[in-house]
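dude i think i finally got it to work??
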Amino acid sequence: MTGLNTAAIYILQTLGSLYLLIVLLRFILQLVRADFYNPLSQFVVRATQPLLKPLRKLIPSLFGLDTASLVLAILVQLLVMMLTLALMGYGLGGFLLQLLVWSLIGVASLFIKVFYFAMIISVILSWVAPGSYNPGAQLVNQICEPLLAPFRKLMPNLGGLDISPIFAFIALNLFDMLVIGNLAALTGLPQQLSPFL
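look at this
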């Protein structure tokens, strides 16, 4: 593989991963019922609308979920993997079903990581700027709240100290290791195809 191909793979994976993150955020923001009028939510909507608008005509929402966003995320991951393999010099014949499975695993892994890093940001903000009305802080808290709420109900009141993020981190890490990690290993997903593993 030439240096030019390596550079092209780097650019492709960086830009593809960034757009994939934005598309998956569109799904997550709808899932957690985040504030649609938040400036960051509006950015995500505008960035994803050109591809989602035609896709929504073909794929309806199911059970109140933004299915089109999820399908678009899987398609973006699939396209990035296919182009990466092509730039690495591999033929795609016979790989399509395996690539689709790998795309599902990559998107699931990124889904977990969005919540994981949102919780890290939320914990830091609770120490540095508690009760902040910054649009970014509000959006992070809205993403974390559905995950933290069940743990808060189980945890005893410790005088204002919220330890629910610790248990949410443990649950996310266990799911990532036991489910996503094992699926990636079982299907032989190469690390270089999905930067989220």
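The chain has one domain: 3-193.
im so relieved honestly
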